[in-house]
User: Which sequence fits this backbone?
């Protein structure tokens, strides 16, 4: 059943999603595009278990997310999902290593294992030698790599990225997209991202265009040009 989402009640009600029917397979890399107010952020919030549909059903690995309590959704997020944000969301006074360790602290992982896993995640994004640097000592592209390492450190089934290149110049944006695509292919991580940039969306295998709370178009991409690979 197609998903709807309504915020507010009565005359103040806003129908953010009017009937979205979307299926994402394990291991896919999908870009969600649309103008401001189109409903793409609501789609991402529901996929990320940050919100529940007003009607319709969202199933994550067969589980009905809409039937879960807020605490159950929080557990699902903690154990199965990783998030990457436009603004990096790093703690400014702590090192890259400590930023990446943070999700493992919430899981009560022992300090020695936590450090080993965080260093491995930083190595996966090419920043093993920058582990002791604070965000202020890193470029924007490096900060986003730390944020990606933080999303990866829990070994999530799905990574959700909200405008991951929005605060970066074009060259750094292509670097981040190439990294995300390589992680998607090498690790089989399902990756869903919001972007307003067609050249970044081209890195995904599929682009979903959302307009006025509906899926306007859903199509495979041709991939980035050779110059961008």
Assistant:
């Amino acid at each position: 059943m197609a998903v709807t989402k309504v915020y507010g009640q009565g005359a103040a009600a806003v129908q953010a999603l009017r009937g979205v029917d979307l299926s994402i397979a394990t291991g896919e890399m999908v870009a969600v595009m649309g103008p401001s107010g189109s409903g793409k952020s609501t789609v991402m919030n529901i996929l990320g278990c940050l919100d529940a549909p007003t009607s319709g059903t969202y199933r994550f690995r067969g589980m009905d997310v809409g039937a879960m309590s807020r605490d159950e959704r929080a557990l699902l997020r903690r154990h199965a999902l990783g998030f990457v944000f436009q603004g990096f969301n790093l703690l400014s006074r702590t090192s890259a290593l400590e930023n990446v360790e943070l999700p493992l602290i919430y899981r009560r992982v022992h300090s020695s294992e936590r450090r080993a896993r965080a260093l491995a995640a930083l190595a996966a994004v090419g920043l093993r030698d920058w582990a002791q640097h604070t965000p202020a000592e890193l470029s924007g592209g490096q900060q986003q790599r730390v944020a990606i390492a933080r999303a990866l450190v829990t070994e999530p089934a799905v990574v959700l990225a909200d405008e991951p290149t929005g605060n970066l110049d074009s060259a750094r944006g292509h670097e981040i997209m190439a990294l995300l695509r390589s992680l998607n292919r090498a690790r089989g991580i399902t990756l869903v991202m919001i972007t307003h940039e067609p050249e970044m969306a081209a890195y995904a295998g599929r682009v979903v265009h959302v307009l006025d709370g509906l899926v306007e178009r859903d199509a495979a991409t041709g991939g980035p040009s050779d110059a961008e690979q």
About this structure: Helices lie at 40-47, 70-80, 96-106, 111-124, 140-152, 170-187, 198-201. The longest strand covers residues 14-20. DSSP finds seven helices and ten strands in the chain.
